[in-house]
Design goal:
This protein folds into 2 domains: 144 residues, no CATH class; 127 residues, Glucose Permease (Domain IIA) (Distorted Sandwich), CATH 2.70.70.10. Helices cover 47% and strands 22% of the residues. Strands 4, 6, 7, 8, 10, 12 and 13 form a 7-stranded antiparallel β-sheet that branches. It has a 3-stranded antiparallel β-sheet with strand order 5-11-9, with no helix packed on it. Strands 1-14 form a two-stranded parallel sheet. A hairpin with a 2-residue loop joins strand 12 and strand 13. Helix 1 packs parallel to helix 3 and helix 2 packs antiparallel against helix 3. The protein is elongated. About 2% of the residues have low confidence. The structure holds zinc ion. The site of zinc ion has 5 residues, from loops.
Length: 280
């Protein structure tokens, strides 16, 4: 069977499965927020795979186009030589013409396959956005029922529960100037796992002055959490993370005097005392 039609049938099957699963959780609310986050992570994985496949096809297409150019050049040059040199017995190079036709049809098939994948990717992106919205809506509904502003998360380190510097005004350990400490400092050995306090989307992962290596997560309840001074970050911007997932390793990068996590919680653009937002 033609590769193009195989792809179309494959895509139809995927759409059908997706449609059935979507309609079932839209009507029955059978899936928990946690389940939806799992589907969202799968959706992101599918997007990454599709992007890779499209990239691969692009590479193949590029080399096929070069191949075609070479064959065409060859045909042109051969023709010229024949006209110039062997004027008596001109033999058309059938093989080269066949080759050129063969490559052209391969290119057409590859381009068809690519557009099928691109459409699939587009559908996936739309599905992801819808799913994210439905998670946010469900979380907000739950919070309303409970009468709370945000979800209480887990402690960002497994075995280290001491706080070396609390939230609020303090004499800064480096500058010796009285300043507002926007989070809490939790000391732990270098490279201890730092955990996402709650599920969400990574909105920043990189180096920032003062913070050093820092990860910022936007959660489905709207709050943002910050994990600073990491030795290294293990997630990237855009990643969907689950509660308890390792996002970075403890370090002392940026303005820091020892290995620790500087942890912040931001609710409605305002830093709150993180102690009030996590279970110790
Ligand atoms: Zn701090």
């Amino acid at each position: 069977m033609n590769e193009y039609f195989k792809n179309v049938i494959y895509k139809l099957c995927i759409s059908l499965v997706l449609l059935i699963s979507l309609s079932s959780y839209n009507t029955s609310y059978a899936l928990s927020v946690e389940d939806k986050v799992d589907i969202l992570i799968q959706n992101q994985e599918t997007q990454k795979n599709l992007n890779e496949k499209i990239k691969e096809l692009d590479n193949i297409l590029e080399s096929k186009n070069k191949e075609l150019d070479n064959v065409k050049d060859y045909i042109d040059n051969e023709g010229n030589e024949k006209i110039e040199v062997i004027t008596i017995s001109f033999v058309p190079k059938e093989e080269e013409y066949d080759e050129s036709e063969k490559i052209t049809s391969e290119i057409i098939t590859l381009e068809q396959n690519k557009s099928v994948l691109e459409e699939e990717l587009q559908d996936n992106i739309i599905e992801g956005v819808k799913l994210e919205k439905s998670i946010e809506e469900e979380v907000s509904m739950q919070l309303k029922e409970e009468g709370s502003e945000f979800i209480e998360g887990i402690w960002p380190l497994n075995d280290y529960k001491d706080i070396s510097s609390g939230f609020g005004y303090r004499i800064h350990p480096i500058t010796q100037v009285k300043s507002f400490h926007k989070g809490i400092d939790i000391p732990a050995p270098q490279d201890t796992d730092v955990l996402a306090t709650d599920s969400g989307v990574v909105i920043f992962s990189g180096y920032q002055n003062g913070y050093g290596n820092v990860v910022k997560i936007k959660h489905f309840d709207g709050k943002i959490t910050v994990y600073a001074h990491n030795n290294s970050n293990v997630v990237s911007k855009g990643d969907i993370v689950k509660q308890g997932q390792v996002i970075s390793k403890v370090g002392t990068t940026g303005n820091s005097t020892g290995n620790h996590v500087h942890f912040e919680i931001i609710v409605n653009d305002e830093n709150i005392n993180p102690i009030k937002g996590i279970i110790r």
